[in-house]
Amino acid sequence: MKIEKEYDNIFRYVLYRTGNRYDAEDITQETFLKYIEHTEYHGRGNERQLLYTIARNLCIDRRRKETTEILPDNVQDTNDDIIRKIAVRQAMEKLLPEEREIIIMRLVNGENISVIARIFNTSRFTMSRRIKAITEKLKKELGKE
Predict the structure, then answer these.
(1) In whole numbers, what is the pLDDT of the chain averaged over residues?
(2) What is the DSSP letter of 38?
(3) What does the alpha-carbon distance between residue 8 and residue 33 come to, in Å, rounded to a whole number?
(4) Is the Cβ–Cβ distance between 52 and 105 less than 8 Å?
(5) For residue 28, which of 11, 19, 36, 129 is within the disulfide window of CB 3.0 to 4.6 Å?
(6) Of 53, 13, 14, the residue nearest 35 (C-alpha)
(7) Model confidence at 125, in pLDDT bands (50, 70, 90)?
(8) Whole-number Å distance between alpha carbons of 97 and 87
(9) Where are the domains of the chain?
(10) What sign results for the dihedral spanned by CA atoms 97, 103, 126, 58?
């Protein structure tokens, strides 16, 4: 696996968690720097899992230091886009933190269920059922049941 190909996925994951493009860029870069420091894991086939774990921990650390959450500003959005994004963000906030991470990895980054299951130390079957339940929860919250 070429580690450079993972940059966009890690960036999207971090951006969704932080809601701030500048923080996401910083944390993504820091993730890859920390990855480089952990040479004992290189070539073992778990690079993607290690990257997500590092990014996750850095996001948690950053969140602990923050006092307020910043929503991204995008002046090109229409009112409908803004309303939809706010509704999705509010629905996501009602999920448990671990549920949000799973949904971001699966639906936003399109990550393989097997990878997510390994990250959360569970079976592929259990993770598949969990993703389905979380998705139904989101649909219900968004009124699309």
Answers:
(1) 81
(2) -
(3) 15
(4) yes
(5) 11
(6) 53
(7) very high
(8) 17
(9) 1-73, 76-145
(10) negative
pLDDT recorded at residue 1: 52
Residue 72 pLDDT > 90 = no
Same fold, 1-73 and 76-145: no
Cα–Cα distance measured from residue 54 to residue 122, given in angstroms and rounded to the nearest whole number: 19
Provide CATH code, domain 76-145: 1.10.10.10
Backbone Cα Rg of the chain = 16
pLDDT at 56 over 70: yes
CATH code 3.40.50 for 1-73: no
Residue 117: enclosing H or E segment and its boundaries?
A: helix 113-119
Task: Point out the least confidently predicted range of 45-49, 79-83, 121-125.
Answer: 79-83
